[in-house]
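Amino Acid Chain and Its Fold in Token Form
===========================================
Scope: a single protein chain, as residues and as a discrete description of its fold.
Amino acid sequence: labelled as such and written in the usual single-letter residue code.
Position: the record begins directly beneath this header, with no further notes in between.
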Amino acid sequence: MRRHPERGAYDRATIDAILDEALICHVGFVNDEQPFVIPTIHARDGNTLYIHGSPGSRMLRNIKEGIDVCVTATILDGLVLARSVYHHSMNYRSVVVLGRAREVTGRDEKLRAMQCVVEHVVSGRWADARQPNEGELKGTTILAISLEEASAKIRTGPPLDDEDDLALPTWAGVVPLTLEPRAPIAAENISAPPPSYATSYSRRP
């Protein structure tokens, strides 16, 4: 990491924690010399990152052929307001994964990957919902990407103003940001109360 190398982190505990908390990732790839970056849901299982979708997906059709991909996930933690506009920034945690994807074809791993995706979004939901049938399994493409080549970049703390600006009367500091769930809204024809994993939902571990 060349720019702000002090923000880099390469230990798996840090990388895993960011991937597990982030709700979505962005997958970058090149098709016919045209770059694409597509947002999608991901899930981590050990050293493997899973992404899934329709077999008709341009992204999945292309990257399952073994082309190079770049997957990023970002969590925004705060707006950093400095005394000068030049030093405004954001506090964040991000991960970049480089590699090539393999298609998951075995039934057991496909089910495991689908469970990981559901549990990544709402922990505890897999056991409550109907399990996928054979048609749904066949109608879902799942790709696996190794986390062997992954790194994190993190910014925390207050603004870093120039010393000459410290006497300015302009307010400086951080506006913290979090993802806060609201009360669950039931679908039609649902009379049962929402489960605890919906009423107490949180992205924090």
User: Anything to note?
Assistant: The chain has one domain: 5-161+181-199. The longest strand covers residues 89-103.
